[in-house]
Amino acid sequence: MSRFRYGVIAVLSAFLGGCGVSDDFSDLDAYMNEMRLRAPGRIEPTPTFRSYPTFTYNAAKLRSPFSPQVRGDLAGQKHGSRNVKPDPDRVRQYLEGFNIEQFEMVGTLSNATGSFALLRGAGGVHRLKVGDYLGRNDGRIVAISSSRVDVIEIVPDGEGAWLERPRTIPLKEHS
Prior knowledge:
Helix content: 10-25%
Strand content: 25-35%
Low-confidence stretches: none
Radius of gyration: 41 Å
Oligomer: single chain
C-alpha cells in the first residue's frame, strides 16, 4: 500500500512539474496592444443632469375631493342651539369608538321585543335597536326600517353650540 502512495505522489509531482511558470507574456502583451488600438483614445465623461424646479404642495389645507361639498353661503347655515348638547355623564357604548362611515347596514331582524338593524363594521356584524349609540359624534339611532337606519348625531357648530345632524345608513344590497 505504501508503494501505491509513493507512486501516486511521483505521478502528481511529475504532472505538476510540467506546469512551470515562464516569463513569456508576449501573447498577453500582443492582446493588450490590439485592444488599445481598437478602443477610443479617451472615455466620455458622464452626462450632466439638469435639476428640476422644486414643487411645493399648497393644497393640503383645502377640502378633500372625496368628502361632500359644503355650501359656501353662510346665510343659510344652521346655527347650533345651547339646548342641544351631548351628555358627558352617559356611559359610552362599544360602537361609539368607531367612525360612523365604516358601518353599513346588511339586514334587519324582528321579534316580539322589536326590530333590530344589523350593521357590519368594527370587526363584525352588530345588532342594534332604536336608542343605541354608534359613531364618534354621539350618534343615536332614531328609526330602523327594512331599507335604512336613521341616526341623529350631535356635532359642534364651531361657535360654541351644538347641532343635531341627521344621517342615514342605507341597506347594502348583495352583501
